Amino acid sequence: MGNFSGTARNSGMTKAATAAPPTPDDQTVGAFWPAPWRRAELIAYSIVALSLLASLVIQATSIQMDASLDGVELDWREPWILEATSHLTLLAFAAIVPILLRAAPLEGPGLGRAVAIHFLGAATFSFLHGAGMFLMRDMLFPSVLGRPYELDYFNAKVIIYELRKDLFTYGLFLFGFWAVGAAQARIAASAPQQSRRIALQCGKRSIFLDAADIQFVKSAGNYVEATTAAKTYLARMTLGDLEGRLAEVGAPHLRVHRSYLVNPAEIREIAPTGEGGVTITLNSGATILGSRSYRERLEAAVSASGGASGAGQRRAGDPPARVV
Length: 324
Fold this sequence. Notes:
This protein is α+β, with helices and mostly antiparallel strands. It folds into 2 domains: 33-189, no CATH class; 193-323, CATH 2.40.50.1020. It is 47% helix and 15% strand. The chain has 8 helices and 11 strands. The strands form 3 sheets. The chain has a 5-stranded antiparallel sheet. A hairpin with a 2-residue loop joins strand 6 (254-257) and strand 7. Helix 2 (39-70) packs antiparallel against helix 3, helix 4 (96-103) packs antiparallel against helix 5 and helix 5 crosses helix 6. The longest helix is centred in the middle third of the chain and has 35 residues, at 111-145. It is elongated. The chain starts with 23 loop residues before the first helix and ends with a strand.
């Protein structure tokens, strides 16, 4: 977690639901749009923050101790500035990881695409870390230490030095967010069926629904329309909020569009629109649109839902889902 100048020697001294046709933004940017953070992501981010704090203290004190052992005179503030600027930018840009992990999960179909996205994400993460770190040092060194920060970030050796560490750090963060999310999913999936209920605030009433009864959900600004076989409920929450609640109780509902969630057990047919998206027909006859960004996961989930257990299980008498 250190930096190129992280030692005393080299620091310088260091229908009911038919949607409008998807826009280009729906199809290309929608998958990356950050929904409110789920519990597992907050837990993982807290672990990252504590780990970075411990690393900051260890790295800064190590630089001080190395300088003392080598008999080198060192302003005690310098290693703390060096390490704080590095670790704070790492913490800030660690938020990129769960957003990309939602868009490109590390299991199921499309693994090659996911690897490409995360490679680009890691490179972006490294650039942002380096730029933020060096910008803060350029501001802090003159004001605190009375001299400029002399290391050139655009030096090829410096870029390679930082890039190799940032790629490793991104990989650790990626594994951490994935592992905590997978553990949370296993816990939710093993919960008793009767616990898979969620509360919707509909006006002044709280409506309690079995997650499996929700066929699909449509975003309506700061509200959502949750449709069951009996009726549609208008609740005050965002689509991302409800997506998180459904995930916490182990429900199989999928984001298929920036404006829709759907229960894969309710899908009768998936047909391409010719523009990369799909039209999704439900057992009830309702149709919604799915965007290109979510198509592979959607088709994989529908294929799996036929034999799944729990909330995602297809009911007796439901026709099998068909992918055209």
